[in-house]
Design goal:
Layout: E1 4-13, E2 27-29, E3 32-34, H1 48-61, H2 66-70, H3 82-95, E4 98-108, H4 118-129, E5 133-138, H5 144-147, E6 151-162
Parallel strand pairs: 4-5
Antiparallel strand pairs: 1-6, 2-3, 4-6
Helix pairs in contact: 1-3, 3-4
The structure holds the ligand Nc1ccn([C@@H]2O[C@H](COP(=O)(O)O)[C@@H](O)[C@H]2O)c(=O)n1 and 2C-methyl-D-erythritol 2,4-cyclodiphosphate.
2C-methyl-D-erythritol 2,4-cyclodiphosphate binds next to helix 2.
Pfam family, one: YgbB
Organism: Arthrobacter livingstonensis
Subunit structure: Homotrimer.
């Protein structure tokens, strides 16, 4: 069986400094919490890197996209972590009969300065996907919306190989048979699937 490639792109705008309740919006990107950095807006945690990776997996398997599996405003995914979405995407793709080869992601943004935490991010995302995830970063040399610091874009590719037939997976979440609820298969810790502190994502 020949391998299949997939592509995913995701963009999130930077949020206001504080949310409606006056709380500071944290930046979650590539599965990591970036202390002191401006957060991204979104229905989930806005982790564009994890979302692009998940969309690339769906694309490679030919099983839809983020919206078809998670919707755009379902309460169970409100504030959900990028790693929880990526882990669920990987589960869905495997249940559809595919092995995951690897995922490669590049994000475009001036901040956060990514390279010092690249290995940490790759470990967090690889653990979520159960397959190697590599991440790189670039700027657009000050051009466009990322250059103006208005948001972040990430693009990802994935490689999968069909090794079996779709499994019958018991639905544990939404009645429409799409994504399972946010509590399913997530890491321990807060219900939104986030780790409790920087570095927690590296725990086995
Ligand atoms: N948010 C970012 C953006 C870039 N980097 C690193 O800087 C290198 C040079 O970026 P250019 O866009 O100026 O070519 C890039 O290759 C990354 O290693 C980063 O760490 N964080
Ligand atoms: C992740 C989901 C979950 O509601 O929400 P957002 O955080 O808004 O992210 P986006 O990539 O814009 O849309 C996909 C949605 O499935």
């Amino acid at each position: 069986m020949l391998p299949r490639t997939g592509i995913g792109i995701d963009t999130h705008a930077f949020a206001a400094e504080t949310d409606d309740a006056g709380s500071r919006v944290p930046l979650w990107l590539a599965g990591l919490l970036w202390e002191g950095e401006r957060g991204l807006s979104g229905h989930s945690d806005g982790d564009a890197v994890a979302h692009a990776a998940a969309d690339a997996l769906f694309s490679a398997a030919g099983v839809g996209d983020l919206g078809s599996h998670f919707g755009t405003d379902r309460p169970e995914w409100k504030g959900a972590s990028g790693v929880s979405l990526l882990a669920e995407a990987a589960r869905i793709v495997r249940a559809a009969g595919f092995d995951i080869g690897n995922i490669a992601v590049q994000f475009v943004g001036n901040r956060p300065k990514f390279s010092p935490r690249r290995l940490e991010a790759e470990a967090a995302l690889s653990q979520a996907a159960g397959a190697p995830v590599s991440v790189s970063a670039t700027t657009f040399d000050g051009l466009g919306f990322t250059g103006r610091g208005e948001g972040i874009t990430a693009v990802a590719t994935a490689l999968v190989v069909q090794t079996g037939q779709p499994a019958v997976v018991p639905a544990t979440g939404a009645a429409d048979g799409h994504a399972t609820g946010a509590a399913d298969g997530h890491a321990t810790g807060p219900a939104d699937g986030h780790a409790t502190a920087q570095g927690d994502n590296l725990e086995p």
